Amino acid sequence: MADQHTVDVSALPPVEQGRGALEGLRVLDLATMMAAPWAATYLADYGADVVKAELPGTGDPVRKWGTQYKGVSLAWKTLARNKRLITLAMNKPEGQELVRRLVKDFDVLIENFRPGVMERWGLGPDVLQEINPKLIILRTSGYGQTGPFAERPGFGTLAEGFSGLAYITGADDRPPSIAGYPLADGVAALTGAMAVLAAVYWRDVNGGKGQVIDNAITEATYRLIDYTMLDWEKRGVIRKRSGNRLADLAPRNTYQCSDGHWISISGGTQAIVERMFRVMDRPELITDPRFLDNETRLQNVADLDEVIAEWVGRHPQEEVLRRFEEARVAAAAVHDISQVAEHPHFKARELLQRIDDPELGPTSVTHVHPRLSETPGGVSRLGGVMGQDNESFYLDEVGLSEEEYRKLKDVGAI
Ligand SMILES: CC(C)(COP(=O)(O)OP(=O)(O)OC[C@H]1O[C@@H](n2cnc3c(N)ncnc32)[C@H](O)[C@@H]1OP(=O)(O)O)[C@@H](O)C(=O)NCCC(=O)NCCSC(=O)C(=O)O
To answer: Average pLDDT, whole number, for the chain?
Structure first.
């Protein structure tokens, strides 16, 4: 089963390795799992020099995640791409001392321990910024650094529920839904990376002072749906699950074609909806009082969906998409991952490129997204073996003596 993959890796273009806009930015990634280290991955894609530390012997939990191939975590491959990998135990005094030594030479430090843990280790922001006032510290946690829930362990899964997102996601007669991938972690990674860049900009134009960024996964996730708060505040509406429909816009749904394939449609503008009715040979619906405008369509959304589903269900996907495309109706196929790999549009965009990985051999890698015109960045390596850069980092770069290095190894600090 593991060898039955269908991406023809040999046909992919070689991986892009362009200059990155963040070249010279040094990031110490002390974080674990998804949300926080993923922020560092985004920075690394643009050329930041990210050094990622793992607990010696144990390593990052993502290494043990279920998606294993030839004994290697595939999630790790993409999560730790472009990073140098060292080991460093912050729960040992020698490891703590080492962090205090390292931060002198970094611009950004990223951590995601439960609030209070870094302080317990003598590595709180006050200590670190006294050593390096320019240091930008990205702290990612489940609930933020303050408030009654601050010290609770947090996960993206909990954040989807706690933030209000899961409650409005899914079919109205089914339980609240959580995305089939670490959605909240990805969102917190993006807000974290964005805040780091804002702090770097401010530091560089305003006299060089670092900042502490308090990135709560629950709040990053809530921020996605914050206009539903206004709906509650101003109109007293508690938004509920509405399947694929959106309380703001109609039509908006997925529809099954006669060959069993699915498409999604978004009636984002009045013109698109009118063109859709014409393609469906139902021009009279344009003046139907139920469907005159977005407001009336929302009031009659069940009727609207029935009309669209009936028409879509009578034609194969290829025909539906072709006819909608000819009329510039906004519709798209619902793809599984193999269809994403094979789609000519994604191929033309070089979504997947080819990289030679020491553990996996030739492997596809997703290009840097989004690309910058002058400094597109690139991927020089996928996630590798724990501690693979220990010697070059600690001995050649940090300047530890062989003896210091051996002693730290002996006590399990690296
Ligand atoms: C992930 C956590 C629930 C894990 O909780 P805990 O296992 O209780 O760890 P703590 O935060 O208390 O941190 C202390 C422990 O960190 C472990 N640890 C890991 N790496 C290190 C290094 N390099 N050095 C020292 N210690 C380390 C070690 O086992 C420590 O245990 P001791 O030595 O015994 O102290 C929590 O860290 C957390 O809430 N983090 C913030 C939110 C977050 O990032 N969640 C994961 C998002 S990813 C996600 O949701 C998802 O993938 O799904």
So the answer is: 96
**Site to substitute for ligand 1 among 32, 73, 191, most atoms within 8 A of C-beta:** 32
Looking at domain 9-226+372-410, its CATH architecture is 3-Layer(aba) Sandwich (3.40)
Parallel, antiparallel, or unpaired: how do β-strands 72-73 and 68-69 relate? Answer: antiparallel
Task: Check whether 2 has a pLDDT greater than 50.
Answer: no
Q: What pLDDT score was predicted for residue 1?
A: 41
Q: How do 108-111 and 17-20 pair as beta strands?
A: unpaired
User: By C-alpha distance, which of 22, 56, 55 is closest to 39?
Assistant: 22
Kindly report, residue by residue over 270-302, the tens digit of the pLDDT. Answer: 999 999 999 999 999 999 999 999 999 999 999
Instruction: Tell me which DSSP letter residue 393 carries.
Output: I
Instruction: For ligand 1, atom 5, name the residue with the nearest CA.
Output: 153
ipTM of the complex: 0.98
User: Which of 33, 100, 158, 390 most suits a substitution to test ligand 1, by most atoms within 8 Å of the C-beta?
Assistant: 33
Domain boundaries along the sequence of the chain: 9-226+372-410, 252-342
Measured N-to-C along each axis, helices 183-205 and 35-45 cross at an angle, to the nearest 10 degrees, of 60
Number of residues that make up the chain:
414
Strand order in the sheet with 26-29: 83-87, 49-54, 26-29, 108-111, 136-141, 212-216
User: What does the block give as tokens for 34?
Assistant: 């998804």
Cβ–ligand 1 distance for 118 under 6 Å, the answer no
Higher pLDDT, 4 or 241: 241
Nearest to 270 by CA among 281, 286, 254: 286
Q: How far is the CA of 222 from the centre of ligand 1 (A)?
A: 22
Homologous superfamily, domain 252-342: formyl-coa transferase, domain 3 (3.30.1540.10)
pLDDT, tens digit (0-9, with 9 covering 90-100), for 335-362: 999 999 999 999 999 999 999 999 999 9
Provide the token pair at 255. Answer: 């529809």
